Amino acid sequence: MRTSTLRHSATALVAVGALLALAGCSTPTAEGDSGAPAADPESLVLALVPSQDQDGLVDTAAPLTDYLSEELGIEVTGVVSKDYQAAVEAMGAGQAQIGFLPSLQLWQANDMYDASVVLQTERNGNITYPAQFMTNNPDKYCDDAPVERDGMLFCNGADAMAGPAGLDSIDKVKGANVALLGPGSPAGYIYPVLALQEAGLDTDTDINQIPVTANDASVLAVYSGDAEVGFSFWDARSIVVKDTPDVGQKVVVFALTEEIPNDGVALSSDLSPELQERITTALADFSDTEEGSKILESVYSITKLAPANPESLDVVARAAETLGLQ
């Protein structure tokens, strides 16, 4: 991967401070003052970046951290970052050793801090996914009649569930209230914003930005009418369907972006190769069990963890660079 210096917002630095306080422990560097390799830590911190409402995420992930603690013989504690960049900075500062990160942050952790990208996720057998454009006003954005798939409505060919689709319709977003995540989110910001700009929109002036903190919040903003359009990963509507059973009828997906590499797992360069291998094996084995797969699906909508292809992440870095985010 190429090397670059990435700029980070003040918000990210504030957020990482909160994460570091939660972590509450430090990790020795890979080499001590004498230049000899330092011992592996007696405890590990797993940084989680929420793709949905973070409330209860650590508790939901507890079976995973408990499993890792038992398999490794090292206490593993989960912490939740409120900001995508915060988890990357926590790994760079030695305050988190395992990161479940979106694709851009996987690239950054490797590029900035030499973290090892060891695993990427599979969702329903796929290693990539599109960002989706959602609306509560299908009459405006749908060029054809919405079709239903598994209780969810799609139009403009988005029912194919693979991007790109329906992008000819996104210029209609001009003037709308749009729910979007922070700039570190590939699906909630980078790819949809890039698509809008390529469609000729000035995303600073041509849309009314409604900031949200997670993918489920974007869905709910559209569902409630706070936003006419929202961005999220495909298909974030499934996160909230339990509490809002009619979300698939009221929130219609009308466009999909280009495919995005899946998120995954990065390990701190402070850890010995032997411990990195043990963590990687333990996580992959956990995802192969029925119970583990269910836990990972509840945390991140993951069905399996597979060996990573770090080079596949370059496309996300290039998209971020096009938007001036690095």
From TrEMBL:
InterPro entries: PhnD (IPR005770). It comes from the Bacteria. Gene3D superfamilies: Periplasmic binding protein-like II. Keywords: Signal. It holds the Pfam family Phosphonate-bd. Residues 1-23 form the signal peptide. SUPFAM superfamilies: Periplasmic binding protein-like II. Belongs to the phosphate/phosphite/phosphonate binding protein family. NCBIfam families: 3A0109s03R (TIGR01098). This is Phosphonate transport system substrate-binding protein. It comes from Microbacterium murale.
